[in-house]
Amino acid sequence: MKKYLTYLSIGILIGITLFKSEAASWFRIYEMFKFQSFHMYGIIGSALFLGIICIQFIKRNNLKSFYKETIVIPAKEKGFYRYFIGGTIFGLGWALAGACPGPMYVLLGAGFFNILIVIAFALLGTYLYGVFKDKLPH
Amino acid sequence: MDIIFQPWPWYISGPLIAIGMFLLLLAGKTFGMSSNLKTMCSILGAGKKVKFFQYDWTAYKWNLVVVLGTIIGGFIAANLLSSNLNVNISPASVAELNSLGFKSAGKAYLPTELFNLSALKDIKTLIILAIGGVLIGFGTRYAGGCTSGHAITGLSNLQLPSLIAVIGFFVGGLIMINLIFPLIF
C-alpha cells in the first residue's frame, strides 16, 4: 500500500508539472512544430539534460531502489521501422489532438472532458496495433 | 507565491519532469505513459481475441496508479494552482491560428473550437479528436513508447531506438501541422 502511495505522489507531481508547464496545451504543441517558441524545446531539453545526469548517476553508483532492488532500465530492442513509422504515426496524432499519453490524463483531471474521446480512440488504436502487429514491419 | 500561480517556465518544468522520472526509477519503475493504454485494453478483455493483450496486467497496476496521480495533478494544477489558464503563445502562432479559424489562440488553455463541450455538436470536431486518438494509440504501441518513454526516459538513457522514435515524432508532427492543417482547418 505504501508503494502505491509513492506512485500516486509521483503521478501527482508529474501531472501538476505537465499542466503548469503548459506542455499539456494544444497551443504549445502547435507552436513547437512551427518552431515559433523555445518553450517546449526548453522543457524537453532541460528534462533530458538532468535526466542523463540522473541515469548516469544511478548506473555509476549502482544505486538501489527504495525497496533495495537493482534499478534496471529495460533496453528497447533494436530496430528501425517500428520506431520510425510508429513514431511518425504518433507524431501525427500528437500534433492533431495536441496531447500525448501523459497530458491526456492531466487534461481529463483539469476538466476538459472532450479529451475522453481522444483517450477512448487511443485505446482503439492500441487495440488495432495488437490486431495487426504481426503484419507490420518492425 | 505568485510565481506558482503563473505558468511555470521551462527551466523549472523540464527539471521537475526529470525528477519525476528519477523518483520513479528509485521506486523501481520506468516512466512510460502509453503502456497504460495496453494495460487498459487487457483489463477490458482484449486478451480474449488478441494474443498481444494476453498477459498478467496486475503487474502494471502501479502504472495505473501513476495515471490516477496525473489526473489528480491536473485537477490540482487547474483548480488550485492557476490564476489564469490562458496560454501565452508567440504572436506569430496566434496570428496563424486565427487565420486557420482558432480565435481562442492566446486566450485559453486549449482551443475552445475543439475542446468546449459545445464543439462536439460539430461532427468534424468528433472526427478530429477520434482520429487523433487512434493515431496516438496505434503509433505509440507500434513505436513501443511515447514522449515519456522515448523522448524523456529513452533519450536520457542514450538509447538509439528512442532517438529514431523521437525523430519520427517530429516528422509526423511537422507533416500534420505544416501540410495537413491547412487542408483540414
From TrEMBL, chain A:
Keywords: Membrane, Transmembrane, Transmembrane helix
Annotated transmembrane regions: 39-58, 79-99, 105-132
Domain of life: Bacteria
Pfam families, sorted: DUF6691
Record-linked InterPro entries: DUF6691
Protein name (database record): YeeE/YedE family protein
Organism: Neotamlana laminarinivorans
Automatic annotation (TrEMBL), chain B:
Keyword field: Cell inner membrane, Cell membrane, Membrane, Transmembrane, Transmembrane helix, Transport
Cellular component terms per the entry's GO annotation: plasma membrane
Pfam families associated with the record: Sulf_transp
Membrane topology, from the record: Multi-pass membrane protein
InterPro entries on file: Sulf_transp_TsuA/YedE (IPR007272)
Tagged with keyword Cell membrane: yes
Membrane-spanning ranges: 7-27, 62-81, 125-143, 163-184
Subcellular locations according to the entry: Cell inner membrane
Annotated family: Belongs to the TsuA/YedE (TC 9.B.102) family.
PANTHER family the UniProt entry points to: INNER MEMBRANE PROTEIN YEDE (PTHR30574), SULPHUR TRANSPORT DOMAIN-CONTAINING PROTEIN (PTHR30574:SF1)
Name of the featured protein: YeeE/YedE family protein
